[in-house]
Amino acid sequence: MQTSVTFKNLDPSETLKSYVSGKLDRFDKFLDNPAEASVVLSVEKFRHIAEIKISGDRLTINGKEETDDMYSSIDMVLDKLGKQIKKNKQKTRDRRGGKTKLADVMAVEDIVPQQDEAGTTQLKVKNIEYKPMDVEEAVMQMDLGDDNFLVFTNAKTDRVNVLYHRNDGHYGLIQPSN
């Protein structure tokens, strides 16, 4: 994580910089993309104030704490930021998980009759569960099963893909474009 530390009414200290940077590096495992952290450490009379702003991975998180010790201010604001990051990540996981439940809501009946000019045709609706995996893993799943296609979420792009058997014996991959 790229960190910039600013000192106000306080002598710049390399130990405080390394302490904050070390603590902020723990948040890299929660963030998918590189993030930037802006840290402002200040002293006003007897109050030691730590303000941290983390930007990246489509989110911006702010935190501010003040105590009578700079290290405890830093620890407390980092605890706040950790809770906010985890809460935000859980929200995105819940929203992504909601996509699989949408098919259950939409399909009320298994067979929906539709009129055609040549006669009556029937549409069979099949609800499927799909999970995140790589394309290589999806190919192995296809080899294990006897289905003609497999719907999965591509772990690299977080988009729904369809892997299917082609008539020439090879595989085909359908993936949405931007």
* Poorly predicted parts: 98-111
Briefly, what CATH class of the largest domain? Alpha Beta
Give the spatial strand order of the biggest sheet: 1-2-3-4
By secondary-structure content and strand pairing, the structural class works out as alpha+beta
Number of domains: 2
DSSP strand content? 35-45%
Spell the H/E element sequence: EHEEEHEEEHEEE
Task: Characterise this structure.
The protein is α+β, with helices and mostly antiparallel strands and 178 residues long. It has two domains: 2-97, 2-Layer Sandwich (Double Stranded RNA Binding Domain); 128-178, Sigma 54 modulation/S30EA ribosomal protein, C-terminal domain (SHC Adaptor Protein). It has helices spanning 14-24, 70-106, 135-144, and strands at 2-8, 36-44, 47-56, 59-67, 111-115, 120-124, 132-133, 149-154, 159-165, 171-174. A hairpin with a 4-residue loop joins β5 and β6 (120-124). Residues 98-111 have low confidence and may be disordered.
Q: Helix and strand layout, with pairings?
A:
Layout: E1 2-8, H1 14-24, E2 36-44, E3 47-56, E4 59-67, H2 70-106, E5 111-115, E6 120-124, E7 132-133, H3 135-144, E8 149-154, E9 159-165, E10 171-174
Parallel strand pairs: 1-2, 7-8
Antiparallel strand pairs: 2-3, 3-4, 5-6, 8-9, 9-10
Helix pairs in contact: 1-2
Concise synopsis of the structure shown:
Its main location: cytoplasm. Associates exclusively with 100S ribosomes, which are dimers of 70S ribosomes. It contains three helices and ten strands.
